[in-house]
Amino acid sequence: MEKAIKEGYMTVGEVAKKMKVTVRTLQHYDKEGLLAPSAFSEGGRRLYTDKDLVRLHQILALKQLGFSLEAIKSKLSSLDTPDEVAEALEQQASAIREKISDLTESLREIEALKAEVLAMQSVDFQKYADIIVNLSMKNEFYWMIKHFDDESLSQIRGRFDQESSQRFMKEFVSLQEEAIRLAKAKVPIRSEQGQRFAKAYWELIQEFTGGDLALLSRLMEFGQSGELEVEWQEKQALANTFIGPALDAYFSDLGLNPLGEVNP
Length: 264
Prior knowledge:
Blueprint: E1 10-11, H1 12-19, H2 23-31, E2 39-40, E3 46-48, H3 50-64, H4 69-75, H5 82-120, H6 125-136, H7 150-159, H8 162-184, H9 192-209, H10 213-223, H11 230-254
Antiparallel strand pairs: 1-3, 2-3
Helix pairs in contact: 5-6, 8-9, 8-11, 9-11
C-alpha cells in the first residue's frame, strides 16, 4: 500500500479536479516543459504544490486567450517574489484586455454585417465579402456597398485595392467637409478658392469613375437615392449646396457639360 502523500503536495488527480482539466492535459504540459511536477511520490506519482496551481492558472488563462503552447512557454516567468508574481498577473491582465478589445471589435463587425444582410433582403455573398473587407479596414462607409449595383461594384473592385480605396475615402470625406465649411462661410463659387475646390472635387470623381460616363451617371443616381442613411443624406445635402454650383461654374468656364463632354 502506497504511503500517504506528505503535507503541501497534491496528486495529479487532485490538481486535475481542482483546476477542471484532465490528467492527460497535465501530463502533456509536463512533457512540453510547461509545468513539471514539483516532486514524485515513492510510487512515481506526479506531485504538485500550490505554486504549481498558480502556474497552471497562468497557462490555462493564456491558452484560453488563444496563445500556442510554445508562445505560452516564452511568456512564463519566475514566481519566486511578490514582484514577479504581480508581473506575471499583469501580463495576463494585459493579454486579457487586448483580447477583450479584439472580441469587442469582432462583435461590432458581426452585428454590422447582420444589419446589412437584413437591410439587403437578399443573399449576395459577394457583397457580404466586400462589407467584411471594409469592416476589417475600419471603413465607416461600408454600408454604402449594399446600394451599389453589381456592375458598379465590379468596376470599383477592379480600380481600387485596400490602400487606394482608403486613401480615396479619406480624400472624399475631406472634400465633403471642405464643401460644408465653404458653404457656411458663403465663399463665392467663382472665387479662386471655390474653383480650386471644384477642380479637386472633379478630379477625384474622375479618379473614381476612370472617365466612365455610365459609372458617373450611376454614381449621380446613387447620390440622389432616398434610401441612403439619413445622417449621410443631410451631410451630403449641405455639402451639395456648394458642390453643385461650384462644379457648374467650373464646367461652364471649361466649356464642358456635367458629363465631361465638350460643349459646342
